Amino acid sequence: MKIFLDTAELSEISRLNETGLVDGVTTNPSLIAKSGRNILEAIADIAAVVSGPVSAEVTATDYETMLAEGRKLAAIADNIAVKVPLTPAGLRVCHSLSRDQIMVNVTLCFSAAQALLAAKAGARFISPFVGRLDDLGADGMGLISDIVDIYANYDFATEVLVASARGPQHIVDAALLGADVVTLPPKVLDQMYQHPLTDKGLDAFLQDWAATGQSIL
What we know:
17% strand; alpha/beta; 8-stranded parallel beta barrel; 8 strands
């Protein structure tokens, strides 16, 4: 399963990219606003650091303006995936850009029916928001299971990108269901390393080794 970082903070992206665990980055207007940077400059810098797909979202809602924004974002770098909302206009933009071999990430997906339309429109990625569904008492992972099954039935090339992940268990559940990608905040990736028994075991090994008085170097 691919791991994307859901952030526009270049320092965090650079730090975690060095681990070799990062396959791409997703951004959105809220994350760009939080970074305080110019959107075009921020996306260009991120795309230069990460070799995998970098999702850059349009901000318009009508077809013509979304399409123009999408083409401008795609021109920044070869690894840009234009992010569009799951609306009639957004899916039309997805279809237009996909025909020109531009990667499209269709976002704000909350139903299997929506995901089916995105795949038919040629989306490279579909982004179901599991955390937001869970917050409302719905079954976010149930949606992922449905989408994975539907896509397998028809051999769609669209990759299921699990978004709005709240913690490591969401990542594990998504992997068990066969999702292609999960995008997560840097703090959640950091949490995936952690287990108290790992810390306890390492402490014991170090204490035993220190008692020998030896050094490998």
